[in-house]
Amino acid sequence: MTDLSSHLAVGAIVSRGSDILLVSEPDEDNPGELIWALPGGNVIAPETVGEALRRRVAEEAGLVRVHAGRLLWVTRYAVRGQQFESLVFEVLEASPYKSKGLTRDALKPPASWVPHDEAVERLAKMWFAPIRDPAVAYLTGRAPVATLWTWSRLDGPPETVPSAGVGGPVAADGERDEDGEDEQRPAE
Questions:
Q1: DSSP string, 105-146
Q2: Is 65 left (phi over 0), alpha (psi -120 to 50) or beta?
Q3: Domain ranges (residues) in the chain
Q4: Strand 40-42 with 19-26, pairing
Q5: Prior bond to 186 cis, omega within 30?
Q6: Strands of the chain, DSSP E
Q7: Alpha-carbon span 186 to 183, nearest angstrom
Q8: What is d(CA 11, CA 71) in angstroms, rounded to the nearest whole number?
Q9: Any idea which fold 5-161 has?
Q10: Can you name the residues that pair with 90 across neighbouring β-strands?
Q11: Could you count the other beta carbons within 10 Å of the beta carbon of residue 87?
């Protein structure tokens, strides 16, 4: 038994052609700006992981008939003695309509279909590494399917299994800052 309590969340990569579904919320630190993320959130007992995935995509984007495919990555980290885990899945089908044969253009705000490269740029600006780093690495081909991302400290680099192209923080262009040049340096 452990002193850590556990929190489980789910996330989804929903694609339409080369577009990726992103959701946004206002950035409290920068009025007028948005923070972009993949749809997802907490699993609420007694729902299953699949039920939580369908509920989160429906609540955040208005899409129903959500069918999970492959597990794309798992993240693990602790905050103040509480363990957090997120499971992110590929979504094979999603529609705003309960029956087949209708278009998938209608989304519930604040969701948006975003071209792949722009989605990577938006996700790279996310402040929280356990959301940002796996999404950017997967979407840029630097992390294989089913990678486990573990942060022993949130201000440090993650351990990945299998090894992914990780090192320093992700820059706003989605590229990893291996040499630290994008970091702010004190004025001389």
A1: ----TTEEEEEHHHHHHHHHT-S-HHHHHHHHHHHTTSS-TT
A2: left
A3: 5-161
A4: unpaired
A5: no
A6: 5-16, 19-26, 34-37, 40-42, 64-79, 82-95, 111-115, 147-150, 159-161
A7: 10
A8: 10
A9: Nucleoside Triphosphate Pyrophosphohydrolase (3.90.79)
A10: 13
A11: 20
CB 166 within 8 A of CB 144: no
Measured distance CA(174)–CA(119) in Å, rounded: 10
- The pTM for the full model equals 0.81
Question: Which tens digits make up the pLDDT trace of 87-125?
Answer: 999 998 777 766 554 344 567 768 999 999 999 999 999
d(CA 87, CA 73): 6
* 51: DSSP letter: H
C-alpha–C-alpha distance, residues 92 and 130, integer Å: 23
Residue 50 belongs to what H/E stretch?
Answer: helix 49-61
Least confident of 2-11, 40-49, 56-65, 135-144: 2-11
Closest CA to 132 of 177, 165, 172, 99: 172
In terms of Cα–Cα distance, which of 151, 140, 130 is closest to 175? 140
Q: Tokens 């938006």, residue? A: 122
